[in-house]
Design a protein that fits this description.
The complex is a heterodimer. Chain A contains eight helices and three strands, in the order H-E-H-H-E-E-H-H-H-H-H. Chain A is mostly helical. Chain A has a three-stranded antiparallel beta sheet with strand order 1-3-2. The longest helix of chain A has 33 residues. The two termini of chain A are 18 Å apart. In chain B, helix 4 crosses helix 5 and helix 5 runs parallel beside helix 6. Chain B is globular. Chain B contains seven helices and ten strands. By secondary structure, chain B is of the alpha/beta class. A six-stranded mixed beta sheet of chain B has the order 6-7-8-3-9-10. A four-stranded antiparallel beta sheet of chain B has the order 2-1-4-5, with helices on one face. Classes of the chains: A mainly alpha, B alpha/beta. Chains A and B meet through helix 6 and helix 7 of A and helix 6, helix 7 and strand 10 of B.
Chain lengths: 194, 240
């Protein structure tokens, strides 16, 4: 997540103090991602150095110093909003690795491994759904974050379901590609692309 | 107390060698006020489980108890009465009768059960009220939006003093915001003391339940434990 750009977005609403930025950052993102004061001032320092924000008030970082966005900062913010994040290379996902490995380790039931992860993810989704039922009803920022998390976890469960079915089919129809998934060199290649 | 109990329930169709085992030794217990979601791929036995729980189909072996009463050996008319009075059904395609208004649809199970029309309609209106669609009482299904139709269908399922709610993919073809609303309403019905079993392939809908049971090849292969409260997902001390 890009903390500098979220801070720029908050400054685009008007000049603000550092502590105020931290509070608004946490409230605006559903209070799911913590941000410490040191990180706020360090980021503001970098924004100032790059000419994207400027400050007024006493020279020291503190409650008396407030910040505002510069025209260059506004341009940078607009460009960032419209630039897609890099999703081209698959992330080195630990869960994907576990399932790939489970299918190779002798004596390991990959379906049981998949089921354990499925149940954990469902429990996590239940927790997020409780938030949707309660706090997120009156908090748009939190509702959006909760939706994003639920869609993400849902996608992981769908992948587990697909993996489960694919492993079953590979066992039932041995003429198809062998159930042994990606050999080690391929795994290395995937990791090396990161 | 368990409103629904399945003990070692199995169901097979056809004869050997082509006999199909839809359910194999399923144990499931659902308490009053609890919502259980049953998840599984197509062909896992989800819908069979629901029709057996709703006494629409008989198991090949095992016991089904609704409110402590065993369905096995129960005379047909008593079973039909149980279906009308105790069990409510929510279907994927709502199944509202097009020639009846919203309140007439909601009151239908009571009228079929012999309750006097004014009394049944009053209960139907109360159910519509609880689901926020009392103002649509006089409208016909084709005059309602998809979301409103499903609310009327839920009202019909909970009207009177139903104890057990059975829902098969209750959000049907609704978009995700309306589907969420349907699950919220079903969960609220449970909080008022109804027990519910919701069959779905959608993890986002299943996550509304208090417990998720995973079915595969007719067997329960796992279920969620009670997850911790949502506070742990937020910044400490920030829960409102």
């Amino acid at each position: 997540m890009s903390v500098p750009h979220v801070l720029l977005a908050l400054l685009a609403e008007g000049p603000k103090y550092g502590l105020q930025l931290r509070e608004e950052f946490e409230a605006g993102t559903g209070e799911v991602w913590p941000l410490n004061v040191g990180q706020v001032y360090k980021t503001l320092g970098r924004l100032e150095r790059d000419g994207l924000a400027e400050s007024e008030g006493t020279g020291q970082d503190g409650p008396q110093k407030w910040f505002r966005i510069t025209p260059r900062g506004e341009e940078a913010l607009a460009a960032w909003l419209r630039t897609p994040p890099d999703l081209t290379s698959p992330p080195r996902d630990e869960l994907v690795m576990k399932v790939l490995v489970a299918a190779r380790v002798p004596g390991t039931d990959a379906h049981e491994v998949i089921q354990a992860h499925r149940l954990y993810l469902l429990e996590l989704m239940q927790q997020w759904t409780r938030l949707k039922e309660g706090e997120a009803r009156d908090d748009l920022g939190l509702a959006l974050v909760v939706d994003a998390e639920l869609f993400r976890l849902d996608a992981v469960i769908r992948w587990l379901d697909a993996a489960d079915a694919r492993l079953r089919r590979a066992v039932a129809e041995p003429s198809r590609p062998a159930p042994v998934p990606a050999p080690v060199p391929q795994l290395r290649r995937l990791a090396a692309r990161r | 107390m368990s409103v629904l109990q399945l003990r070692g329930v199995s169901k097979a169709y056809g004869h050997e060698p082509t006999r199909v085992h839809a359910l194999g030794g399923v144990d499931l217990s659902v308490r009053a006020g609890e919502m259980v979601a049953v998840m599984g791929p197509s062909g896992s036995g989800k819908s069979t489980l629901l029709t057996i729980a709703g006494s629409l189909e008989e198991p090949t072996s095992g016991d089904v108890l609704v409110c402590g009463m065993a369905l096995a050996g129960m005379p047909r008319d008593r079973k039909a009465r149980l279906r009308r009075r105790v069990i409510g059904y929510v279907f994927q395609d709502f199944n509202l009768l097009p020639g009846l208004t919203a309140v007439e649809n909601a009151a239908l199970p009571l009228e079929l059960d012999g309750v006097a029309v004014p009394k049944a309609r009053a209960a139907g209106l109360a159910a519509l009220e609880a689901l926020g669609v009392a103002d649509q009482a006089g409208r016909f299904p084709d005059q309602l939006s998809g979301g409103e139709r499903q609310r009327v269908a839920i009202a019909r399922a909970v009207v009177g003093d139903r104890r057990l709610l059975l829902a098969d993919e209750p959000s049907g073809a609704l978009d995700s915001v309306n589907a969420d609303e349907v699950m919220r309403l079903l969960h609220e019905a449970c909080q008022r003391g109804v027990a519910a079993v919701v069959v779905t392939h959608d993890a986002q809908l299943a996550a509304w339940a208090d417990r998720v049971v995973v079915l595969r090849d007719g067997r329960v292969t796992g279920q969620t434990a009670r997850p911790p409260g949502p506070e742990s997902l937020l910044i400490p001390g920030k829960i409102r």
